[in-house]
From TrEMBL:
It is found in: Cell membrane. Its cofactor is [4Fe-4S] cluster. The gene is nuoB_1. It comes from Adhaeribacter aerolatus. PROSITE patterns: COMPLEX1_20K, SEA. The keyword NAD applies. One of its GO terms (biological process) is aerobic respiration. It is a peripheral membrane protein. Belongs to the complex I 20 kDa subunit family. This is NADH-quinone oxidoreductase subunit B. Keywords: 4Fe-4S, Cell membrane, Iron, Iron-sulfur, Membrane, Metal-binding, NAD, Quinone, Translocase, Transport.
Amino acid sequence: MSKINMVEAPAGVEGQGFFATSLEKVVGIARSNSLWPLPFATSCCGIEYMATMGAHYDIARFGSERPSFSPRQADLLMVMGTIAKKMAPIVKQVYEQMAEPRWVIAMGACASSGGIFDTYSVLQGIDRIIPVDVYIPGCPPRPEQVLDGLMRVQDLARNESLRRRNSPEYQELLASYNIQ
């Protein structure tokens, strides 16, 4: 975890002290502790997510207790369950409507790889249409795994450079998915 160090003020300067850190670290800490998930749940993984939201597991400890059902107010897309190929354009549109920076979790075997449904109508992993930051394995994954995946996204948000989203590599990645 990043630290903000309290440093004594130089001689001749009044006050208790001042903070010595970079803006990038402060923004990263703020982002990581206020992720607003958009749950895109289609099957049993959604039930496990609901259990994670309950008092026993308390996702509020991580600053993610406010699920947003508007892509313009969310920064973490959680895709849970089987995604049919007919739903793929909707998932992609939801992702494109989210403001940067945005992160994606593929929760469960179906969202990650199509699961047991190796058929013509099931998308064999959402990473074919949008970039995925964290994969949560399981069928369905336990709430503890969901919290672990959330903590991994928090680490990404905390340590991400402010300039990474404008880098040529990131723009090339989005272009490979035909996302502007």
